[in-house]
Design goal:
By secondary structure, the chain is an alpha+beta fold. The protein has two domains: 95 residues, Alpha-Beta Plaits (2-Layer Sandwich), CATH 3.30.70; 137 residues, Pseudouridine synthase I, catalytic domain, C-terminal subdomain (Alpha-Beta Plaits), CATH 3.30.70.660. The chain is 22% helix and 30% strand. It contains five helices and ten strands, in the order E-H-E-E-H-E-E-E-H-E-E-E-H-H-E. Strands 1, 2, 3, 4, 5, 6, 7, 8, 9 and 10 form a ten-stranded mixed beta sheet that branches. The two termini are 23 Å apart.
Length: 246
């Protein structure tokens, strides 16, 4: 048995997220099925992802680790996976990792992007990867609001899991908001994120951008530790995992 590190890209549109679920198409499930066939294993191999992206969320570079017993080289494993995986899941890289490497536990940080489309017309060829806005957002106001979210805070108000029993304290060291023509780009980097956290932060910043909230309300929302006082959860289609740091 050797330990392998995989870098995976996927269009999450038609999947029920990363984590395998009985009777549902998931990214993890698709990869495990192909690896099981490749290795002729009785048991399904456990592909451990750096995180668990939600249904409809995309990734450019999800990192995963898996232990396999195979005579194939890393490049041959990559070729086999890419041959038999659906066209919306691609393996960018496969390499042998140290015995102790664990994709989730060893992750030091993650970068997420979120993209919105603004303006008339329909983003026909981008519709799977952007969230369409029906208003002109105030980027300066959203940038001011984002500054309050940076740093170490209790993000319970931005957690989509109401039954969360573990600590909801997280460190977000960078949030940027940029406008380029008809698109608004949000970029988040932090040591880790709660369920739906990035999408709730985007939803809240968009409330500020629409003039429904003031930037100065963000500290009050953090202090409340109440999901109901934050903004809505932005649609999954605009979210993409860009990179995992080790």
């Amino acid at each position: 048995m050797k330990n392998y590190k995989l870098i995976i890209a996927y269009d999450g549109t038609r999947y029920f997220g990363w984590e395998h679920q009985p009777g549902k198409d998931t990214i993890q499930g698709k990869i495990e099925t192909v690896l099981q066939r490749m290795c002729e294993m009785e048991e399904i191999p456990d592909v451990i992802g750096a995180g668990r992206t939600d249904a409809g969320v995309h990734a450019k570079a999800m990192t995963a680790s898996v232990r396999l017993d195979t005579p194939l080289s890393p490049s041959q494993i990559q070729d086999y996976l890419n041959r038999y995986l659906p066209d919306d899941i691609g393996i960018i890289d496969v390499r042998e990792a140290s015995e102790r490497f664990h994709a989730r536990y060893n992750a030091m940080g993650k970068t997420y992007s979120y993209t919105c489309y603004v303006g008339g017309g329909k983003p026909i060829f981008q519709r799977r990867y952007v969230s369409r806005l029906d208003f002109e957002p105030d980027v300066d106001a959203m940038t001011k609001a984002a500054a309050y979210l940076q740093g170490q805070h209790d993000f319970k108000s931005f957690c989509g899991n109401p039954k969360m029993k573990k600590s909801t304290v997280r460190f977000v060291d960078s949030i940027t908001v940029k406008r380029s023509k008809n698109q608004v780009y949000f970029t988040f980097h932090g040591t880790g994120f709660l369920q739906h956290m990035v999408r709730i932060m985007v939803g809240t910043l968009l409330e500020v951008g629409a003039g429904k909230m003031r930037p100065e309300q963000i500290p009050e929302i953090l202090e409340a530790k109440n999901r109901r006082v934050a903004g809505p959860t932005a649609p999954a289609c605009g979210l993409c995992l860009e990179k995992v740091d080790y």
